[in-house]
Design a protein that fits this description.
The protein has 166 residues and is α/β, with parallel strands linked by helices. It has a single domain, classed as Rossmann fold (3-Layer(aba) Sandwich). It contains six helices and five strands. Strands 2-3-1-4-5 form a five-stranded parallel sheet, with helices on both faces. Helix 3 packs parallel to helix 4. The longest helix has 24 residues. Pfam families: AAA_33 (PF13671). This is Cell division protein ZipA.
Length: 166
């Protein structure tokens, strides 16, 4: 029987470095990189104008993404998902997906201070002006209120504590 792939996802506040780490891990591990931002931009280029729009459209793509990822993992492909695992509910979705396939998973947690996140958001909004509408201090504080730090008490969770060099 063929080995299953490994599912990797990321937890950290906005601006913590999740995308940077995801891209780096995918490249060094020879894994397939899937970006929620890219999927949403491709499928809903003009329809996400608020955090509520983001949540609604993110939920619309998840059933398709789930089927796709399950097929890849069953083929033995390692999958790095640059989709947030920032709440207990989001992490449970990833854990359930890996449990269904019977594969290993890793949730990389980037524990970064608010100040570091805000500095990165400010830098990113200049480097990527198309993101400036959402890469603001106000949006950071709004989404941070929903952030739930992962704990070992979450059923089936495999947390990897990540360090980012900036």
């Amino acid at each position: 029987m063929k080995n299953k792939g490994i599912l990797t996802c990321f937890c950290g506040k906005m601006g913590a470095g999740k995308t940077t780490l995801a891209k780096s891990l995918a490249a060094t591990e020879g894994a397939l990189y899937l970006s929620e931002d890219e999927w949403l931009a491709a499928h809903y280029p003009t329809q996400i104008n608020s955090f509520e729009d983001y949540i609604a459209h993110s939920n619309l793509i998840k059933p398709f993404v789930r089927k796709y990822v399950i097929k890849l993992l069953n083929l033995g492909v390692n999958v790095v998902m640059d989709f947030p695992a920032n709440t207990i509910k989001q992490r449970a979705w990833f854990i359930a997906l890996s449990d269904e396939v019977g594969c290993k998973h890793e949730i990389h947690y980037l524990d970064v201070t608010d100040e570091q996140c805000l500095a990165q958001i400010k830098k990113r909004s200049v480097e990527q002006p198309e993101r400036a509408q959402f890469d603001t201090e106000a949006v950071f504080h709004y989404v941070t209120q929903y952030f739930e730090k992962p704990t070992s008490e979450e059923l089936g969770i495999n947390i990897v504590y990540a360090k980012m060099d900036r």
